[in-house]
Amino acid sequence: MNLFADIRALVLSDLAAMTQAGVLPSGLATDNVTVEPPRDAAHGDMATNAAMVLAKPAGMKPRDIAEVLAARLMEDARVVSAEVAGPGFLNLKLAPVVWQGVVASVLETGTDYGRSTMGQGKTVNVEYVSANPTGPLHVGHTRGAVFGDALASLLDFAGYEVTREYYINDGGAQVDVLARSVYLRYLEAHGQEVAFPDGTYPGDYLIAVGEALKAKVGDVYVGQSEDVWLEDIRDFATDAMMKLIEADLASLGVKMDRFFSEKSLYDTGLIEAALADLRDKGLIYEGVLEPPKGKKPDDWEPREQTLFRSTEHGDDVDRPVMKSDGSWTYFAPDIAYHYDKVQRGYDALIDIFGADHGGYVKRMKAAVSALSGGTVPLDIKLTQLVKLFKNGEPFKMSKRAGTFVTLRDVVEQVGPGVTRFHMLTRKNDAPLDFDFDKVLEQSRDNPVFYVQYAFARVTSVLNKATEAGVAVDDATLAAANLNLLDHEAELALAAKLAEWPRLIETAARTNEPHRVAFYLYDLAGAFHGLWNRGNDLSELRFLQDDPKVSQAKIALARACAVVIAAGLGILGVEPAKELR
RNA sequence: GGACCGUUAGCUCAGCUGGAUAGAGCGCUGCCCUCCGAAGGCAGAGGCCAGAGGUUCGAAUCCUCUACGGUCCGCCA
Predict the structure, then answer these.
(1) What is the average pLDDT value for chain A, to the nearest integer?
(2) Architecture of domain A128-268+384-436 in this structure
(3) Among A110, A254, A379, A401, which one is most buried in terms of CB atoms within 10 A?
(4) Calpha distance A494→A105 (Å, rounded)
(5) Chain A 536..555 CB hits on strand B (< 7 A)
(6) How far is the CA of A305 from the C1' of B29 (A)?
(7) What DSSP assignment string belongs to A464-476?
(8) What is the per-residue pLDDT across A228-241, written as a single tens digit (0 to 9) for each?
(9) For chain A, first and last CA: distance in Å?
(10) Is the pLDDT of residue A108 over 70?
């Protein structure tokens, strides 16, 4: 149930009737007719721009249309008043029974309230994290992980069929480096003194891998040359790293549906197939690129390479897919991977990259556009840097000084819920401050706490009511006499709940889960506001002497908690029944 | 030289498909704690939405240019 959609449907049906009656000319496009909450609550509950949108094509004055429409709208029982305002807005005031109905509806549908069918079961692949399998995840990955995971849940809630996917970069030189690093740890496990030259990974996390390798193969690789052990150790090490990464993700509550190996692309001929597809479309050629203007690399020399004509699909320059020595560039398996996603039949693709990969957006979009013939949209979301603070002081990370902050560090210090919620309190493309102390602060300016506090207060009210012998299970509350819920402040809070289904659709359409976090903060604020008014005005308290009245008011409180739980569920955060 | 992202209150940031007098928290000023959880509450001040053009009934929102900040720019991953 989406109240705004319901009222919009009412507006459209009245407009159709006006056309029927000859008031409006036929054939008017009503796509741009909106019904939304007015910015200023004094204007009423909802506003429609119908008269303004239609005035020009109908050749009529906005106010003339608005007045006729207003009269018709008021015939509906849900509409108390419809007033023409400003340049031709129609402000609607809705009957209390509408808002009371929202509360009942929330309690009847539970945390599924707001679930949308806008996705129509279309399949969407969300690829995120996709960090190199060479070590534990760090804070930067954390933001991508949280964002991607919340987005996936959001789309699921909005009616899409979502696949969460991780692309393992296990085909390039970096996994060879990993293998050599593990080999050194392996030698170390055999009691040898080793040094870690530049170009190897010295991290402690490989010590255990070296020992595990020793346990598995004994000393057969000791003293052997690289060509003997490289492939085997590479597989072993990559496997170990992916287990580590999966555990990191699990600590944050992220679970992928599928891990896709870059290496598998080489074995299956997918790269060749993808490139053949582009070649058939006339988008592959041999050529020489211009050097980049302004900043010419010192060692630049023109070389003929195999190029993808990405400029045909919106890119700025064509991109090499094969190096001059005949091996693939990094871009080639990327193309093949997206080719595979297209072949799998997804209706839409979403990639989450770190902002430092912003330069790859156009070429990836070009590739998908070319591979799918423009039929599969690819949206790429960039997540900006996370700036760490400790007690207000910038917290510098340094691998060398050992102050390198991993995902695990963050989760262990502040918990997965706080981490996830806080990471979503900024738009994905804006930098984010993360202060280890402030995110745990229990005050109004910490959104995580403020939302949880609202949920905890409701739990507290439910407990008190139960102690007083008042039945407060959801079924009872939904069937309570909600007509008793008639104070303007209470109806305003119910109206806030009515915005939830609409917010879901907006957030899903724009692929912006942070909107959910902001909404929850807003809803929590409205709830606390009503609570505070109860301090001065006892009739606004949730617990009353008359059990019937209590039930009606508690129904409203419980409905807020249900929506908060639903929203937190999308963000992957556990609601807290009590705070200490 | 080019591409992408950003620029909204003193600070940190929201702002829906273009909609009415642009919002929140912090900070500031004033008042308030016997009260369902004061881990605070209420009220107020504070804005040329970076600048300039354009599109239209209407622009923080769309387009163009400029300024400032960030990220990136042939075979690396």
Answers:
(1) 91
(2) 3-Layer(aba) Sandwich (3.40)
(3) A254
(4) 11
(5) 536, 540-543
(6) 69
(7) HHHHTT----HHH
(8) 999 999 999 999 99
(9) 36
(10) yes
